[in-house]
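Inverse folding, one chain.
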């Protein structure tokens, strides 16, 4: 009787847990059923002890004549009852396994997607990590090992394709590529990047042929879920990218939530030049930036309507202007012309809108136009980290630090080993007067890139704000960038009471960087209490189109200027008075705002 009761109870619970949710009852009725059945177990045993089933029905045990054996049919009936229940249980188990369970998973997946969209949080959908992936740089297997730009570029294009799927959390390039040429096992990579899947492979080119091998690995047990080899002409490289991304989508079982994205097509030779230019542009050296510009132009000479190359060319001009390799006015004029070409070709290219917004914000000081384009970029590609980075910078320029922190925390969560992401988040925390958190992220940036320009300077300024002048001086002296070190020293010396050294350091700063650092010279003068001279150099910063002015509203060094009658008129002159900033519509937040440490 105990066995019969337990089998029957299990069957009832399974049916209840499946049927009740279908009618919107949730889990409560199923829990009640379990409690009732558990409570009824001992009374059922007691009942079976007191009563006996006979051919004449239920009778008390005490009333039976034990001198007469029960008919064999009674035992057989009980056996048949148990067998029927077991058969029903087995049938239900098979039905649940092969019919109900897949249906439930599909329904749960769709419900989770709908809930995530309602909340504006795509990452709530992937909290378990099942729908997360890192695309590692494909290995260059060419005979001369000189096709790294092609293998890296194809890896990044696959990453970008997969990143277009809202339900899939894709680790950004900086973090994924940090493991390039390192002997690190899958488990370690998965632990560092917090992903459930890894896509890796190799690329071999020979003449006009390309051979691509790709493997999708589940990190929990290093199981290879899928692998394929594609040998095609270079003309078919985009088809191969589409085939690989579609296969990955199918293997991750998210095809019910949207079709696999398609690669943007162009001429194969132009595409090779584009990939190489993009890789060189990230190096940031004089030679690399010049070579990148040439390759972008070669790409556009073959395919003048390849919009991503116009975006890259615009970015190259901007970087040259920022690095002093091209006059600021000329660089930004060329950058604007290139990005306008990109938008004329593809008005819905998110990267183009983000780049246009950056040009408007950093050179023109036109925050309204910047907001217009960055809002558009976010609407087109809300998961694009390059868009999120520009959105954070715009929010910071508008003085909306909580919004800036939300975007930069989102970038850090998606790209946890990107030193730039930690550096930017540190700036947000610093402006929000949270120096300890700022220092933590800046030190993380240094652990990832020991010579990251400006980071030691920033740590020094944060320590100075905390009153640690000795620590601030040590940090500034370790800053690898001459301009940033020159900016920091006169402020630290002034705080230490070493006036003569502060004066000498300020004189050197003005002599060497008067046009390149007018905004920062104003910061130094404000900290030294030279208010009139600080306003003079702020005016010079406006004349020189100094990009530092984008932070003037949140700059801590200008706190001593805020009560001066000249402060608000100056802000109004450059469009940064409180009422002017408040009038700019930019209230976007990242799809998944995270406030936990990466």
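Residues assigned per position:
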């Amino acid at each position: 009787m105990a066995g019969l009761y337990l089998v029957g109870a299990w069957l009832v619970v399974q049916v209840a847990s499946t049927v009740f949710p279908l009618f919107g009852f949730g889990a409560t009725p199923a829990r009640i059923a379990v409690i009732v059945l558990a409570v009824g177990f001992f009374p059922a045993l007691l009942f079976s002890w007191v009563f006996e089933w006979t051919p004449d029905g239920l009778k008390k045990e005490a009333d039976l004549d034990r001198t007469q054996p029960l008919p064999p049919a009674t035992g057989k009936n009980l056996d048949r009852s148990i067998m029927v229940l077991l058969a029903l249980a087995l049938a239900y188990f098979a039905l649940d396994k092969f019919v109900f369970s897949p249906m439930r998973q599909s329904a749960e997946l769709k419900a989770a997607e709908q809930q995530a969209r309602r909340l504006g949080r795509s990452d709530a959908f992937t909290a378990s990590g099942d729908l997360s992936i890192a695309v590692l740089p494909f290995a260059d297997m060419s005979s001369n090992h000189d096709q790294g730009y092609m293998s890296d570029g194809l890896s990044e294009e696959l990453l970008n394709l997969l990143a277009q799927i809202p339900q899939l959390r894709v680790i950004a390039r900086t973090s994924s590529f940090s493991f390039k040429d390192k002997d690190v096992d899958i488990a370690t990579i998965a632990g560092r990047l917090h992903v459930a899947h890894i896509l890796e492979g190799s690329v071999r080119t020979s003449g006009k042929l390309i051979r691509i091998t790709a493997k999708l690995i589940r990190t929990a047990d290093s199981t290879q879920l899928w692998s394929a080899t594609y040998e095609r002409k270079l003309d078919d490289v985009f088809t191969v990218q589409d085939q690989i991304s579609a296969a990955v989508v199918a293997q991750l079982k998210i095809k019910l939530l949207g079709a696999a994205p398609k690669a943007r097509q162009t001429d194969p030779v132009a595409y090779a030049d584009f990939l190489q230019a993009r890789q060189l542009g990230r190096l940031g050296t004089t030679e690399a930036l010049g070579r990148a510009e040439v390759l972008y132009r070669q790409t556009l000479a073959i395919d003048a309507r390849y919009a991503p190359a116009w975006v890259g060319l615009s970015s190259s001009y901007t970087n040259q202007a920022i690095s002093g390799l091209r006059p600021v006015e000329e660089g930004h004029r060329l950058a604007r012309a290139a990005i306008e070409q990109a938008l004329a070709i593809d008005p819905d290219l998110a990267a183009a809108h983000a780049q246009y917004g950056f040009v408007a914000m950093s050179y023109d000081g036109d925050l309204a136009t910047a907001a217009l384009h960055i809002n558009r970029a976010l609407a087109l590609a809300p998961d694009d980290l390059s868009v999120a980075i520009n959105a954070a910078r715009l929010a910071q320029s508008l003085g909306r630090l909580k919004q800036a922190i939300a975007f930069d925390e989102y970038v850090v969560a998606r790209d946890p080993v990107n030193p730039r992401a930690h550096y930017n988040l540190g700036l947000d925390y610093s402006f929000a007067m949270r120096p300890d958190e700022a220092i933590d992220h800046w030190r993380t940036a240094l652990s990832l890139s020991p010579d990251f320009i400006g980071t030691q300077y920033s740590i020094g300024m944060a320590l100075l704000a905390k009153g640690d002048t000795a620590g601030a001086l040590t940090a500034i002296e370790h800053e690898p960038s001459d301009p940033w070190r020159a900016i920091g020293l006169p402020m630290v010396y002034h705080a230490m009471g070493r006036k003569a050294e502060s004066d000498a350091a300020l004189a050197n700063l003005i002599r060497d960087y008067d046009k390149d650092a007018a905004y920062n010279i104003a910061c130094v003068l404000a900290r030294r209490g030279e208010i009139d001279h600080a306003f003079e150099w702020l005016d010079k910063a406006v004349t020189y189109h100094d990009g530092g002015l984008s932070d003037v509203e949140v700059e801590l060094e200008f706190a001593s200027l805020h009560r001066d009658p000249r402060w608000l008129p100056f802000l109004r002159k450059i469009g940064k008075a409180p009422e002017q900033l408040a009038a700019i519509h930019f209230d976007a937040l990242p799809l998944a705002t995270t406030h936990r440490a990466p």
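The first strand starts at residue 51 and ends at 54. The CA atoms of residues 443 and 450 lie 9 Å apart.
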